[in-house]
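Chain X:
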Amino acid sequence: MSIFLQHCLSSFRKTCNRGFTLVELLVVIAIMGFITMTMLIRQQQFDSSTLLRSLAYSVALSVRQAQTYGVSVKLYVNGSTTSFAPAYGVYFSPNLSCVGGRANSCYLLFADVNGDGQRADDASEDIQVFNMGKGFFIKDFCATGQTVGTQCYSTGLQWLAVTFRRPNPDACFSTSAQPITCVLNATPTYSSSASIQVTSQGGSTRTVDMSPTGEINVGTSGT
């Protein structure tokens, strides 16, 4: 029995001292590399999705800020220009000057001082430019009218303005196709709804939907 045990112990020691072969080591390294790469990709996707959701809510909060300014009778002061209780709005257009020259990567808050229901071309009514982070941009913006149906940037719209004017919190939507529907003391005729699609380079999309009653919702694309 002792000879058998010695033989087994000797074989065990030889096996333990042999170690890993080069092929076994390469297989283990490949497996660990694959697992690590998978975890990194999933983490990047999670971070991108989280940032995109936060950005969509930031757009919604900007619209809500314009609504608050418009309803609360906020005084507008820009140098020597002073306007009491103008309409306030948020403006979306690919022609805006964004950080880094990236198209559709910013939008702005403006005051409708002259009462034409849209942003002034000379930027005299601009209040604040909101720049999106690198890799994020506005994929599309749309407005649905009572008589003209839904029109989008992807089908020809050049800009969309969402404005709020006291004394009610209702939203008015004007576009390059219907630019005069939110003029002061006019009855809006293009005010069914509007939406903004925010996307990332990874292809994920969040949509900010706005109704004429001032309701703002954030959801995934198509909701």
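Chain Y:
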Amino acid sequence: MPPAPATTENIVEVQNLEKHFGAFKAVAGVSFAVRRGEIFGFLGPNGAGKSTTIRMLCGLLAPTAGSGRVAGFDIVRDTEKIKTRIGYMSQKFSLYDELTVEENIDFYSGIYCLSAAKKAERKDWVLTMAGLREHRRARTAELSGGWKQRLALGCAVLHEPPVLFLDEPTSGVDPNSRRRFWDLIYSLSGQGVTVFVTTHYMEESEYCDRLGIVYRGELIALGTPRELKTQHMPEAVLELDCDRPNEAMLALERLPAVKEVALFGKGLHAVAADPAAAEAAIRTALAAGGFRLGRLERIVPTLEDVFVSLIEARDRVAGALTEVRR
């Protein structure tokens, strides 16, 4: 099912947020807003600053500079109040392996100070939502990664928070478990919960209402998946299948008509301002190099194409600035 449309009310707002660790800027002045009921994704490689940003929004880490509000509370002054209004699921499984599924739910019900009646109601809801009724008395250590993931999500929303932060929640689980987990996210969003999720999986990013692409602590693009593919990728993308793709990539990188080229599955994606000129140059170069070319056609850009293009553009700018300073 598709995610429910979000309202226009902002429940997370960030202005020029920074976090420094010594001379290193883990987060370098990001600004964005997340609407109530929206599934908002932070996409970026490991070390880009995604987890650091989430920890500041959850009140777990004090920012070096900038400001932000979550569920109406200031991320510097109201950290304890924020913690009562959010659910947080880290990329590392954080429940207790020696406890049963039911005991973990009971433990977190106590942490959230739920009344006896509310505790029973929410436990029943979590067991149903996560499909864990048959596993309620199983030791958590015996669960598969996918079942642990569902249990962690259930415990994170026991107290019915309006905002849910998921930090790389599907890291290390199989694709089927990942897809089922996203069905649960859609269900929560449909009930009005705002979901803020970090990920480095491109296919997972397509499930979000909007995405922020993060690189080296900076927010380098923001929009819906469709907007990112149409507004941030003005160049054409050519997809080609050929033998020896690694060697072919090196040959195509030297062509003036090709702006960028990257491995994509078993083939290559080439980015070009003039697709006709690039196609002719590619065919000539591959023939001259003795490569067998199969399919060569223009395609709609993928999020991965956009991601690679934006990062390479940012690296070129950074490289140029370094040369100027020298």
